[in-house]
Amino acid sequence: MRTFAIAGLAGAIAASLPISLAVPSVLLAVAMLAAVGYHHSADVDPGVTTEFALVATTLLGAYAVSEPEMAAALGTVLLVLLYAKTALHRFARTVITQRELADLLTLAVAALLVWPAIPDRSVGPLQAWNLHTLWLVVLLVMVTGNAGHLAARWLGDRIGLPLTGLFSGFASSVATIATMAARVHAKHSPASGAAAAALLSNVATLVQMALLVAAIDIPLLRSLAAPIAVGLLVTVGWAVFWMLRDKTPVRAEEENASSSINWRAAIGFGLWTAALLLVAAVSREWFGAAAVTAVALFGALADVHAATAAIATQAAGGTLARPMAGALVVLALSVNTLTKVVVATSGGKVFAGQVAAGLLSALAASCAAFWIAA
To answer: Start and end of every DUF4010 domain (predicted)?
Structure first.
């Protein structure tokens, strides 16, 4: 402990000196001392964690002179990593498999290296595509599939999949349904459990719609409160029904050497989204600026929240009457629901039928509630 404290203090002193090479010199000296120490202890402990931690502590000491808050935060992370040695080793050896670790590293590269490197601007015909956004869509499918795999293996299909569906739905319900359909098609999950997960992702859609409308135009939310509430109740009811119908034993999914990342489903969904965006761009070009609502409904094929935001914004600005705005939001929900049903067909007749029963009955209930309230 004293060695680490002295190393950090040496780094701070070096950074405070008006000598340009003070920090590199101290860092080199500490690295050489760490190398000598490792040479003497390698037979007993071949790991180099302590030596790297000593060098990192020296750097943190130097960094603390100019950025004390960030240095304190990084020091806390370093301390946690050192303290959690046993837990991390147990996690890597017993909780997660080699294949799963490789998949997580693949996701990290796709999210932290590839995604930031993709330009965030519109390209292609009619500037219809933003490759940065499209790669995010692909990432969502990959992450959802990986999360579903881990949850199913650790908690079992009857518990893990529905939870995955609910939380992944806040990112993209359509992508979640596509992922669940791919799992059923590959026989990685039973149809009933995956259908419950798909329906719970629709719960996330409805909750987000309510929050979005509330943030933009509270009066519009009053006319949509009943349809959204009824849709939530019906969707949850169907999800619980399919969970109870699932007779799969509550046991963790066995280890599988295959990857949990379904590249075919992820890339395919990204291409499908790109096609829908092109359709929306062509519609805008043909109908002109006056057809913002029509374009929003086209956009609802892939993302109902964008359509809802566009309609609510017009209602809040007074360019669209609220009764008409409420009807258009329900119409956008209908369009998006049909998209989800079409996506569910890739999981087979049984899965598609179960998902369609829940989604269409919830949509019918929402439409009826809106008609009665109007």
So the answer is: 140-346
